[in-house]
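Q: I have two molecules that I believe assemble together. Could you output structure tokens for the complex as a whole instead of separate predictions?
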Amino acid sequence: MDSSNDEALDIIITNVVATFRTRCHLNLRTIALEGTNVIYKPEVGKVLMKLRKPKITASIWSSGKIICTGATSEDDAKLGARRLARLLQKLGFKVRFSAFKVVNVLAVCSMPFAIHLIDFTKNNRPIASYEPELHPAATYRIKHIKATIQVFSTGSITVTGPNVQNVATAVEQVYPLLFECQKPRYK
Amino acid sequence: MSRAGLSCPGCGSSNIVDDHLYCQSQLVCVDCGSVVSEGALVAADDHVGGSDVSYSRSTAVAKKPCMNLIKGIQRVKAICRILRVNSGIEDLSQTYYNLAYQHESFIRVSLQKKEVLAGCCVLVCCRLLNWPITMGTISCLLDADPMVVGMVYQEMVKILNIEPPIINVTEVVEAHSLEYKLSSVHVPEEYAENSKDLTKRAVALVELAADSWIVTGRKPIPVMMAAIYLSWQSLKPNKHRLKCSLEKFCQIAKVNKHRPASKRITEMKKVLCKLGKEIPWVREAVTPDNVVRQVEDILKHRYALLRRALRTHEEVLLAECQASCEDSLTEETAPTQSSELVEQNPNASSVEQCELNAERAQRPGDGDDNPCTVSELHTDIQESQDPTPNWGKRVLFAPPCVTHPRKKRRVEQPELKDVTGDEEISDSEIDSYIRTPQEAREFTLTQQLFYESEKS
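A: Yes, here they are, computed for all two components at once.
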């Protein structure tokens, strides 16, 4: 992939958030009664359901809109969402799995070098911003792919974006900028 | 102007003129004076070119500036006077406040936020015009939550399109140390300290901390507090000062103690101990308890001590590396037997590099090039032996979060690679999530019992 580095960087996806619709009204009380692993939150108007495999937490609203969080890949999220839809079908609702969309992907990556954050921010103004009193990482936002990268001085970075492809592109884009501002390790 | 074709109904004459009486036009007979016809009371042409004027606008006087804006600008001036900044900063911050106040993001916010906005304008102007102050100072002045100050600051910078320079901690130390009331006027003699000396030593300590990974990513104020405390203790290390805890010091200097400052003090003392060990004329062991007395010497010769410490560390690592490579051999150093070692030992390449390292380290080392290359070779060795290196363990100075990782290192889960998302879902799997009717009934009963017992 990258010709500049010899070892491949491990981009580990830690969270995928996806939404889908069931196209029918859902009775939250029934779900809370007949489902296991369910937490009912009447004050907010939703039900939290946790699946074991894949490890997913879903927020279910009575309008039929559902948000799934906690998956570790896009396909995993889709599988979990389909499981959830099937489960609701079995509980007696006329569910139609539709409008599945991955909304957010969070990934972490570790650079093999430490980074001098002040230099990095100076070289990349105004896309990068760093306020040490507020947050220990520098934030780098790539508008055209809608990705946000938080760069820590130890070399770890966290990337959030709308899908896995954008996240990978963001890491590729930011790597040369980080490489320029690396801190020598022995110091 | 006479009109043809019309005859007066009264006298029948055709001498009819168009008379404009006031604003109403009438057709009047000249002979008998009777009105033949009249126009509408409000003729359409009179208002051509004019527009409807609302009542409030017609009765309005010259527009007065908003009262809150005036108060806000006065607050900006007051903050500038308290901080004793120069007039350039004062004027610029008033301009920015005016601009930001009128913007839609800030025109309708609460008064508290508008006050915070005043402080943020002063902050950004101080940064732009090279008079660095911390956000902590501003939030203290405004008595506001630092997070709210941060939020407003970031939004304001985005709206006004300013790019303030990032301040280094060392620049802020001087301004911060002025807050500590340690002159002989305020405190008894054994605690009093000249602020110039205090600042100079604190700056040196902060620079040392920045070189050894204590400052990066941390909030600056606890670091500065720790530096000032240690420099105060070390300028006159008598028993009064050494016994004085951080809490008591903050009480004496009349500042608010920050909790992370104690941790920073421990970290700084560790670094000072590592350097203090290298001082040739110190006989006793340097521990965090007695390192304060050596701080003056350490800071004076810190670059030389850093080089020595790094070299010692490299030698220790090299010895460890050799010991682990040559576990089956009785001789410790055998550069002539390297060829045999290559055949016998499975880690052939690492052994060769070990020998190379031994030769290089034995050469008289001077300058910073040597530690650099030796450490690079070391990273190669370690990485060939250990696939997931924790680089914090290998180097002398590393950020505490890398040396003592609390979280497990994240590894990609291999089993998830086979998931496609469109697989079949078996019924039994789904049934495990549904309660049987019996279980549902029991659940409702238990719930009811529970609520009843709660009520009673």
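A: One point stands out. The radius of gyration of chain A is 20 Å.
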